[in-house]
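Researcher: Next sequence.
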Amino acid sequence: MATNKFSLVADAALDGRSYLAQTLIHGDALGKIDADKSATLSEDIAALAHKLITMKVSDLSDQAELRTQIQTSFALTSLGLEYGSKGNLDKAVRLLVANPILKFFQIGNTLTDQLLKKADYLLEHAYIQPPESISHLDIDSIRIYNHAEAEFLDALSTYKTTVRSAQVIIKNKHQPQNFTNLSDMEIVRQQLAYIETRWEYVQALPLDDVFSVDPPLSIAVDPIQLLTLSIMANLTLYFQPELQLEVGTLSDFRGIVYDEDVGEIRAAPRQRLLDWIENYLEQDNRSDGLIQYSVAYWDTCLQEMVNPHPDLEVFM
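Model: Next structure:
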């Protein structure tokens, strides 16, 4: 979309997957969006981008940041238009012709605002904090999200996502891409819910000795996965939900739960572990939603024993 009024969007590419792009193509096919209307829409989106840049970019020579704000104006407008038209392209064309672009931008901004606030809150606060009794010691807090999830949470602040589907634990991440459709937002919403529920799961665990674990969990790429595997391993080998791993404990645990011949987790030890966490949380009167997530989380962590990540080797 080009504009004569603001050169800053002249070379910006509108993502062809976005609902706004689909609407423009459909409107052209219907003969509802002619060259004059297209130019007007370009001018209006350019004005939005210019306003965002004025508000959020302090260094106008930062081309990457300028492009980010331009793409944000496209993305929020697209989301607002899809929401307003309920995914009906005929209706979207009518709405786009009859209403100012700003209206759809405002809707899109409202739709994303709470999700971005939640992401920022989790990024800043989703930690296991040392108790006050040892606050004078140089002890790091323990994140409840892994490195890939930190990248996901951080990317949301620029209206981008690094996931294509919601994952109990983010392992498969992609290069950040702008939100293009409401389906992207639903995936983001589900992913945030998974991370938020994991924080609740962690708070339900027996964590009295979590800051005495050596080496400290805070250095792990995925601290809560390691914490969970530690509980599983100690339950399996010693019948106690301990957090400390002795040398070889994870290796011995893997030997019990993983069947090398078929390349799968053995059914019986898997079920015993899933039953344990379910019963533990039920006895603590936790919600059904938390219990369901926690069982799925344990199952996902357990699958790590099929092909352990290199970062686990230091603990094995």
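Model: The chain has eleven helices and six strands. Residues 42 and 209 are 59 Å apart (CA to CA).
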